[in-house]
Design goal:
This protein has 282 residues and is mainly alpha-helical. The protein is globular and about 60 Å long.
Amino acid sequence: VEAANKCIKWIVRCLDDQAKDLANVLVEYMLNVFCATHQASCLNVARILVQALYEDEERRPMVMELVFALTSEAQRVLGEHIDHLEGEKDLVDDLFRLHKCVISHCAYDVFVSEQQILKTMMEISSVVCLMPYQSTETVLGYVANLFSLAQGKGDQYELDVYFKGELEQLFASVGEELVSRLIEALSGTVPVYLSSDLATAMWRLMNLNLEAVVCYAEQAPCLKEIPPNKAQGFHIEGMLNAIRNPTKLKYLKSAFKEYARLFEEEDDEDNKDKDEEDENET
């Protein structure tokens, strides 16, 4: 299956516009193969098809139907393993790469046709953002891209207003959990290098509803459980103040990185002390 999917990606990229003549065959093949094998590479091929065919008005509905069908099946599989998603890293990674591409090219189709998919994607995001894996970076990028639609581009006012309204409704249902998980991820759960991606995702949410984000961040349960040897109260307040008083994204990234380093440095010191104890015992 992996070899066949690599071949299909090569064919689509080489044929470019002429790949549309194979759309019917490829869509049926990808759906059948994925439902039978759950190979993550099928989602990767779907992403290539979106990039190649999203401007073709005749075949775009067919490609989007494939995306929705693959997504529903992938979400079903991940839902069955929601407590053990670390074993499904490739599937998570390619699913969110696919939808990051869809948001860039065909966001309106998703909002109009399959809003439940968005809610489920956010539920999965809330779980994955606590995992120190490469897929976490992809998920955070998806969250940032999705909520950046609320800012609009200025050239399509009615569409911008529509996206903002829909995202406000989505945030109302998933925002508290998502913000809480982002704060938990920042508080020593994921590597420091992901603090920049966490800040970008948080920034997009802040642009949508700052008051709610501040409230959810202040009430994040994880902040009450942080041991004083990890971060003092003034450290936590410094991080929260960066959220309360946003100026530029780069300042939020800097504040998040400084806060995240507290946990890394403490972990490194603990490991160093443990190694010294082991050497002394030896």
